[in-house]
Amino acid sequence: MTTSTCFAERLKVRLRRNPQVRATALALGGGMAIRYSASKQGLQAKAFGSLVEIRRGHKVVRLARRHILYAFDVIGSFDYYFDSIKPAQVGADHIVDYSRPSFHEVLDYDRHPILFPSLSEPFVTTRQYIELGEIKTGDVAIDLGAYSGLSAIAFKDVVGETGRVIAVEADRQNLTAVERNLDLYQSITGQEVEVVFGAVWQDDNGLTFSTEGSMGSSAADIVGKGRGETVQVPSFTLGSLANRLSLSKVDFIKADIEGGEAFIFEDKVFFDKFAPKIVMEPHVVNGELSSGKVARDLQRFGYTYREVPQLGSDIPLLVFDPPAR
Fold it and tell me: Could you give the CA distance from residue 167 to residue 254 in angstroms, rounded to a whole number?
């Protein structure tokens, strides 16, 4: 299966995340770039002080100016981000404020509020991961790029006491949210999600990581060194992670790791032993979509894949089905 032109067009939003485009937007003070992009979508946008606001009528999404890059994502998927949490009413405006780490009430998840480092993790996408991954009671699921931990919580609700969920996160700011959300979840349900700090990568030698306290944190070699603080974090291959946790099986992997997927699926030792179903969001790596590289890597182990529209987003999900065993 080859990546279609339509697929590439829908992923243009990811191209906006390349460091050169970001530098241009910031050189313009941010405001000019986002105002132009917003106007094309029938929205209004402005950057002022430490904030960025995108508005449709009385609906407002607010970001920190240091996360101005994500204004383009919000502009392209305004309803996706506005409708995912309960807004605050300020005068006539209904404001969704992602400008600082905050607890939010999540649409379709009412057990407890969720602490998001920045943008929300819409639950509609989490449900889609569960459905596409065919997760069931007793499964072992690995969440690569746990961000807030909400997906890991939803996975644990499905796999239950007899299953395991491992949440992997390499951004310390995001990890704080993961740990607080999972502690709150465990205090209410008694269910535990295992947390691993670090990045799944092509080796165990450590990784220079761009940490920004948002969804786009990734290896500095992929996203550049201008997106937040650059730090060294532990790294491990999928096989090393499985050995470390004494996993006897792996049924499902969710991969939303901002380009890291192009480097982690060559692990023959892991795939000789395990054949998990994989659902991933593709990204741009070195100017090319990661989907082609990942498909070639996994096809070596007998995988097939298909593209599925992601609800509420222009970016599709890729579902990799393992060979029958």
Answer: 10
